[in-house]
């Protein structure tokens, strides 16, 4: 067992340091690159927090949709082949909900400020 | 140093020029570079841009029209009254600068976030969609018999190219599969009319001033095909930068874009435009995945590229919003 602090706590602390203490000292193209770097650390922090729960739920949905077990990568390959062949489509019960939930979970990590994501988040329920 | 070659080159076609100011590189990959500099002239300096492939990088990627064709098309567009930088010189072997061309620099802004937020563009913003409609019409009206040999595309070929590239990544994406399926099922096929298509008609390639659109840049992806492609690409949500209710670049409506196009004497097919918007959304998503690939395989191992890879999911939600909207 690795000791604490957890990886997400470390990336968060590093991002805060760069944002608060270093960003004001940097200008021009390096300031742009620093913003990208901080965004990358924030993304990693979100993934470390959200990935496990999201993956487990995706895995359970895929197993129900496809009627079989497997790794996430395997199940996504099988689903992709099913959609490509037309065996699975938007009439298939659960497919649309699954794709929506999976995509929302990806955006929550990748780009939670994306306007289309925020709009759809407001439309839940 | 490029300064010496440029000084020699400029003196050969610009009478009275005494030299150039220190050129600054604006952008550059391995195969193509853009430099800005001033031609020093007793009557006043002339702002200029060099776009070139350095020596040894002649071969363009398969989709690219080639720098000579770009220069040719810019001249054609300029002469037809399409807002376009004036091409000053096409590089020759004796210039020793590689292949490419030198054009007059048009002052203005290309960065979308500034165009959408800065006060100095507030009066221009409501005008842009209509202006772009008229400009697209001007491009599509350029006489085909004057065009150089360009790649001919249609929706069916484009879908197949996107699919081939997506499959080459070997990474399953059910939403992209659904979009590919939807595109194949709804493909209207080749258009009746085939025209010049700019191919990258979007933010970043428009120089905007307080008075509106001053120039269209970057003919790298020009080809012949369905003119509705340009109108669909400019509406892709990825170029709205958060202003998702203004489909044209985050500043205007489709109605204004179409009105500008039709006022210039050309006909819009809104269903085809929408189809190309879906193609464009998927195309940008696949391009994001390509960035990830290039980040991983090198030589451009930059974190910017890596982070663009993580933007593919943005196009997944955009695709779902169009082809599988949720019931409310």
Task: Walk me through the structure.
The complex is a heterodimer of chains A (about 120) and B (about 325). Chain A has one domain. Chain A is built from 5 helices and no strands. The termini of chain A are far apart. With about 120 residues, chain A is mainly alpha-helical. Chain A is elongated and about 55 Å long. Chain A has helices at about 5-20, 30-65, 70-85, 95-110, 115-120. Chain B has about 325 residues and is of the alpha+beta class. Chain B folds into 2 domains: about 1-105, Phosphorylase Kinase, domain 1, CATH 3.30.200; about 110-325, Aminoglycoside phosphotransferase (APH), C-terminal lobe (Aminoglycoside 3'-phosphotransferase, Chain: A, domain 2). Chain B is built from 11 helices and 10 strands. In chain B, strands 1, 2, 3, 4, 5 and 6 form a 6-stranded antiparallel sheet that branches. In chain B, α9 runs antiparallel to α11. The model of chain B has no long low-confidence stretch (mean pLDDT about 95). The interface of A and B includes residues 33, 76, 80 and 114 of A.
């Amino acid at each position: 067992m690795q000791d604490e602090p957890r990886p997400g706590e470390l990336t968060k602390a590093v991002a805060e340091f760069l944002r608060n203490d270093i960003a004001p000292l940097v200008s021009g193209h390096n300031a742009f690159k620093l913003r990208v770097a901080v965004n990358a650390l924030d993304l990693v922090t979100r993934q470390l927090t959200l990935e496990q729960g999201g993956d487990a739920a995706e895995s359970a949905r895929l197993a129900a949709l496809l009627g079989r077990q497997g790794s996430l990568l395997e199940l996504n390959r099988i689903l992709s082949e099913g959609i490509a062949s037309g065996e699975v489509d938007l009439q298939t019960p659960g497919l649309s909900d699954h794709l929506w939930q999976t995509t929302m979970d990806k955006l929550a990590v990748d780009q939670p400020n994306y306007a289309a994501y925020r709009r759809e988040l407001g439309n839940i329920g | 140093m490029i300064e010496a070659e440029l000084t020699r080159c400029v003196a050969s076609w610009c009478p009275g020029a005494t030299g150039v100011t220190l050129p600054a590189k604006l952008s550059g990959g391995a195969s193509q570079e853009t430099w800005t500099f001033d031609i020093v002239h007793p009557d006043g300096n002339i702002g200029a841009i060099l776009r070139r492939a350095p020596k040894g990088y002649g071969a363009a990627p398969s989709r690219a029209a080639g720098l000579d064709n770009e220069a040719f098309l810019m001249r054609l567009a300029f002469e037809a009254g399409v807002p376009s930088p004036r091409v000053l010189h096409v590089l020759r072997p004796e210039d020793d600068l590689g292949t490419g061309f030198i054009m007059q620099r048009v002052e203005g802004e290309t960065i979308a976030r500034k165009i959408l937020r800065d006060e100095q563009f507030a009066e221009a913003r409501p005008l842009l969609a209509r202006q772009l409609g008229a400009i697209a019409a001007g491009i599509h009206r350029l006489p085909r018999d004057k065009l150089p040999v360009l790649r001919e595309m249609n929706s069916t070929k484009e879908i197949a190219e996107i699919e081939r590239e997506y499959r080459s990544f070997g990474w399953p994406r059910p939403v992209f599969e659904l979009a590919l399926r939807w595109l194949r099922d709804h493909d209207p096929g080749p258009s009746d009319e085939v025209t010049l298509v700019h191919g990258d008609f979007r933010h970043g390639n428009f120089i905007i001033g307080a008075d509106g659109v001053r120039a269209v840049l970057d003919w790298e992806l020009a080809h012949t095909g369905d003119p509705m492609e340009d109108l669909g690409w400019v509406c892709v949500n990825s170029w709205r930068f958060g202003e998702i209710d203004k489909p044209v670049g985050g500043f205007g409506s489709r109605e204004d874009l179409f009105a500008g196009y039709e006022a210039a004497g050309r006909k819009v097919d809104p269903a085809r435009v929408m189809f190309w918007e879906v193609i464009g959304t998927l195309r940008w998503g696949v391009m994001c995945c390509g960035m990830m690939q290039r980040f991983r395989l090198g030589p451009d191992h930059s974190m910017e590229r890596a982070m663009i890879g993580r933007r593919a999911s943005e196009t997944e939600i955009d695709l779902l919003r169009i082809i599988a909207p949720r019931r409310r």
